[in-house]
Amino acid sequence: MVGNTSLTCNEVEVAFIASFPVGGAVTAANDSSIWRGGNPGNLTLVAREGDVVPANVLAPSVNGPWSYTQINTGTNSPLLNGRGDMIFQVTVSDTVATKNVYLGSTATLGLQLLLDAGDTFTTSLGTSTWTTVSSAAGFNSADGGQTHFNNQGDFAVRPGLAAPGLACILRGHMGSLIAKPASISAVAGGTQNFVINCAAARAFNIYVVLGSTTGTRPGTPSPLGPQTIPLNFDTWTQLSLDLANTSVYSNSLGFLDANGKATASFNLPPAIPGVQGLLLHHAVVTLDLNLASTFVSEPTSLKLY
Fold first, then answer.
1. Domain end position, chosen among 150, 173, 196
2. Is 126 in the same domain as 17?
3. Which of 11, 104, 242, 279 could bridge across to 87 with cysteines, CB 3.0–4.6 Å?
4. Which long-range contacts (CB under 8 A, 24 or more apart) does 292-296 make?
5. Are 161 and 17 in a shared domain?
């Protein structure tokens, strides 16, 4: 039985929470589950009540591994964007303790932990842990994604906080390119740091960080492979190549490590004429040793105010 309040879709996929009828091997301890898929017969089980959460996603406690408990339906879980990225809230237990976690899933990186119950947030009232996550209902935004989970992997949620806090609005990002902060003063200058994670399947691939000032759609077909790079190539794209591995684009061209990871940064000098008000976007392209492109990341943004 599919919970209709937890059904969401994009142009090619659907994600939903379902309950199995109790009987035989199905009991009240394993009857709920969360699924995603595209074509009929191509559904993938993402999580099932009673199954162990992978240790690389949620490390076992002193009591043992964490397992999914009841996966309840609701209008805020799961969320699915146009790229097929999914986020959902679920309760887990180590047989002694029970807690909420917020999980994400991408085709490249698989299951990821976004929020653990022990994570804290600081507001004017003090520092608090979070209890549950809520967000606006899943209406579509202009890019075909949900208003609070766009196709670049940016999401906005409202965690309820334990005392002394009440609640806060949290902005986050999931994907292969994490970029922080989201804005820099064009007058003072500053740095946006990139954390690149293209998965172990692309270990030791060449990577390059590319930029654009003219947006992400429709994007540009990769000249070296079948992918579409989610950047409109322009003069800034050439600039990001010309300045690769300089003081402006630090470590933006190199080799991924054995886990398919790297770090880089964009360092804006102060008072550069003409850049105030620009919205920059960046994406990562990986290449094999034959210089064929193997992967492109989602785009990230940077406002120069």
1. 173
2. yes
3. 104
4. 292/224, 292/225, 293/222, 293/224, 293/225, 293/227, 294/202, 294/205, 294/225, 295/108, 295/176, 295/198, 295/202, 295/205, 295/227, 296/222, 296/227, 296/228, 296/229, 296/230
5. yes
**Domain range spanning residue 219?**
177-304
Instruction: Note the pTM of the prediction, 2 decimals.
Output: 0.87
Report the distance separating Cα 48 and Cα 190, nearest Å: 45
Domain shared by 124 and 169, yes or no: yes
CATH of the domain at 271: 2.60.40
Ordered per-residue pLDDT tens for the chain, 305 residues: 655 567 888 888 888 898 888 999 999 999 999 998 887 678 889 999 999 999 999 999 999 999 999 887 655 678 888 888 999 989 999 999 999 999 999 989 999 999 999 999 998 999 999 988 875 444 544 454 556 888 889 988 888 899 999 988 888 999 999 999 999 999 999 999 999 999 999 999 999 999 999 999 999 999 999 999 999 999 999 999 999 999 999 999 999 999 999 999 999 999 999 999 999 999 999 999 999 999 999 999 999 99
Q: Tell me, yes or no, whether 87 and 218 share the same domain.
A: no
Pairing of strands 300-304, 183-184: parallel
Structure tokens at 32: 């709920």
